[in-house]
Amino acid sequence: MSERSELIRKLVLNLHVNVIERQILGILHEEEVTEAIRAILDEQGAFPRRRYGPSVYEGAVITTDNGQPEVTWERPSPLNPTVVADQRRQTFANMDAAIRAYIDSEWPRGIDGIVIHR
Description:
alpha+beta; 39% helix; 5 strands; two-stranded parallel sheet; globular
């Protein structure tokens, strides 16, 4: 894996890179982000990996159900963060479409101030 690929992976997993890493990355392309997410999905089966604990994870998660890519959006109740207040699930024809929906939903302005170019 190249240094650039490793930095993109770090960015999509941690949602942050330092100033030097940001300079190394420069411009970020959607295809690069898609490749990083796809690799993580192949390894872990979900992106981002669900965090286990009492609180509901707020945001989107990509998974596969019977080979079909799926994105699930959840948000917790404002009065009780351990209860799901709203959930929406969408199945996609292919993984690229699911990843694009995730990027459009979760990172419309980029990641950590780094714009994702199409």
